[in-house]
Every structure is written in structure tokens, then in C-alpha cells.
Amino acid sequence: MELTKYGHACVRLEKNGRALVVDPGVFTADPVLDGADAVLITHEHGDHFDIDRLAAASPGLEVFTCEGVAAQLADLPVRVEVVEFEDSFQAAGFSIKVFGEWHAKNHPDVPIVQNIGFLVDDQLFYPGDALTVPDVEVDTLLLPTNAPWLKLMEMVDYVRAVRPGRAFSTHDGLLNDYGLSLVDNYLRLESQKQGAEMRRLAIGESVTLG
Predict the structure, then answer these.
(1) Residues of the chain falling short of pLDDT 50
(2) Residue 189 region by backbone torsions, left for phi larger than 0, else alpha for psi between -120 and 50, else beta
(3) Which domain CATH number covers 37?
(4) Domain count of the chain?
């Protein structure tokens, strides 16, 4: 499969002429949904879920997500399927397994929302806004590297717990150039320690997995 990084926390996966988009939020630039066959949405926060973009998408687009997001899509011309922890399904020709149930703790006055992670084709794991460690071997991890709910030590502990074959930064759209350079440095150090490729993809950059 080919993975392309879009803004902040969104990626597009393509295989055999079909396309699967993960978490197209308000920080994601178009045309991420052009020609897309299906969408995966981890949770309801705007940086991962842009309801206006989905409303403008092609009728019949398949959306797989948690109950919290699905409830907001009831009036849209998209096909919504609710999935939860331990579910397995097919989307756009990809095999998907679901891990996790809740968003990481963020602010004491903000309720914790549902958050599910997706393992795609037993290769790529995208946790959304959580530090879910799946009980399977992970070839490629999309690693959250910056968030109000995330500390550097937690990020490092997480990538060491998962021990992926390689890791690419996600959830980095709130950083300026100084912050991004820090992410690059920490990923480089961890890459050297684990002997695995770990780096940040530029927006629009593609890599081939598998």
C-alpha cells in the first residue's frame, strides 16, 4: 500500500486503485477525499473529523467510526458503520482491525470521548488520540508526537512499548518550525536507539508499505 501524509493527523492509503482516508479533519487540505472509497474516523474532535467536508463528499462514501461520530453523521448522504474494539471489517479493499475505546485524558473539565485505533492490513497502526498498545506486532506505527494530552516522555514510552518496525510522526500540525525540528531530533534519537526507521513525513510525501 502507498501512504501519503496530509495535514496534521490525516493520511491517505492507496492500493489496487482504491483509496482509504483516515481522519480528514479541519487542518487537512483538499483534495484528500477526491476518489476516496472509504473513510476511517477515530473520534469526534475537529482536527480529526470535519463534518462539512464529509457533507460535501460523494454520496454513498463509506465511513467507519465510533458511535460518537456516527451520531453526528445521521443526516449526511454517507454510509456509516459503527465499529468498536475487537471488530474486524473490510474497507476499500483493506482489512481493518479495531483497537482501543477512549481518548487520552486531556483537560479535567472536558469529558473523555470515544476513540478507536485502526490496524490496516496487519501492517499499519493508527491509534488516533490515544496511546493504545495493540496486542499484535506492528510493522508501521503512526506516532502522535504533539498534543495537549501528550508529553515527550509518554511519546517515547509509547513507541518503546509498541516497538514498531518503523514509525512516522502524526498529530504534529500545531507545531511551528522550531517544534517540528524538536520532533525530528527526538525521532532521530529513538530511531538510533531502536534500530528502526522513525521520522516525520512532509505534507504530501508518500511512502510504500509492505
Answers:
(1) none
(2) alpha
(3) 3.60.15.10
(4) 1
